[in-house]
Amino acid sequence: MIFLLLRACGLVSSEKPCCPCSLSYYMYLMRSDMWNKANSGIGVAVSLILCLLKLPLLLLKEKQKGRHGGVCMAEAYDIVCISHVVWNNSWQRNHHTMNRMASRHRVIYCNPHPVSMAVARQMASLKEACHPSAHSRNLTVITPVVLRGERIFPFIKKINKLILWSAIREKIEALNLKNIVLWFYSPLYEYMAGAFDERLTVYDIQDEYSEFLGNPETIKEKEKRLLSKADLVFTGTYALYEARKPHHPNIHFIPCGVDIEHFQRAARGDLPIPGDIMHVPHPIIGYFGMVCGRMDTALLEYMASRHPEWSVVLIGEIAERDFSISDRPNIYLLGRKSYANLPCYLQTFDACMIPFRLNELTLKVNPTKLLEYLAAGKPVISTAIPDMIRFYGDVIHIAEDKEQFVRLTEKAVAEAGAGKSEICLARMRTAEKNDWAAAIKRMEDLITSAIQARHGDK
Asked: What CA–CA distance (Å, rounded) separates 349 from 274?
């Protein structure tokens, strides 16, 4: 267990170390029954001790290397991404962005795993987090274990900073990364800005984090500090762009894209039908994504009761902490599916939905799933999310209340039988205008310009 913990911290390798001077060698010697039976408190203590032991060696390497490892062209950079989202999760903006960035840059995706001192109870989720399904040989996922309680015990922040610096720096050295662009997907670990002598700091905002990542005031203060440190800021929604624009001089709205080829396969109708949806009665009103508190369960229950002949299908990881829905025979919770198999499920949907409740969090979202629905030409019904109205109101149905949501779903179900109608083709054209490749190209251009502005031609 301790070995798994330290491996997750990025402190040891699974291979037998060849150097007797390395920390991995010491850890190899400690892999005995005694250590495997050690309690979780000892495990955390050992991980911190190893961080301290590594620190002088890493600092010496840093000093010997010098700044940036020499002069490079502005566009030749590698990326260290610190994200709050596990890599093996429903794919979101951060997964798509980093996976595509890895086609031209080496990427370290760091997802810190917060634990209490009772680590043993969390080892199952930690083990899963340590086995990424990266789609690129240039993308490396690390999951350092950090401690909870930074807000209550300030010294924990110093410990976590040491753990993160050590785990990331060792991976940077191992991969020989150069010209680091440090990329944040939330303000949780904003104190890492400046820790890697990075060429540029990027903050990519995809949600109103103060609504769900912890104490709202603490998150707002952390974001304020991160905005003051960031050289470049992206937002995934226009609502977030408007809210943050007064607080940063170099901020850009870059909406999420879509993998056109992947999801257009669902429009052909010739993909294999998964067994768990094969016998679900039509019409199917479908959703995929996180099944969580963002969803308006009262709306879903109302729809299911008004139309018992409809099948309301929800696909995605269920956040049991904040999601609960009544047990109805025509509501199907199919659980999480792989990104590769989503088109197989999408092709069975007669209509797609974004049934989000409206609050401070959802009013500033721009769900990635919408363009994935549209790429398949499917009719879509959404609650009145501002970005949905602003950018897609001409190709999707927008409902102001649950009664209108049901009426528009009735209309969408009728549209589903129209085949490749003009509106269906219009949906697909809308998706094609928002390919991920264009979004990533714009990000890269802005990063290159920001590096040149900050460092000249170095």
From this structure: 12
- Side by side, the strands of the sheet bearing 351-354 are 331-335, 311-315, 284-288, 351-354, 380-383, 397-399
Length of the chain (residues): 458
SS3 98: helix
DSSP 286-345: EEES-BSTTB-HHHHHHHHHH-TTSEEEEES-B-TTT------TTEEEEE---GGGHHHH
Q: Specify the pTM.
A: 0.81
**Tokens 């300030």 sit at which residue?**
154
Q: What is the pLDDT of residues 116-158, one digit of tens each?
A: 655 534 554 555 555 544 456 799 999 999 999 898 888 999 9
Domains of the chain: 72-253 (3.40.50.11010), 260-432 (3.40.50.2000)
Q: How many helices (H) and strands (E) does the chain have?
A: 18, 15
CA distance 105 to 402: 46
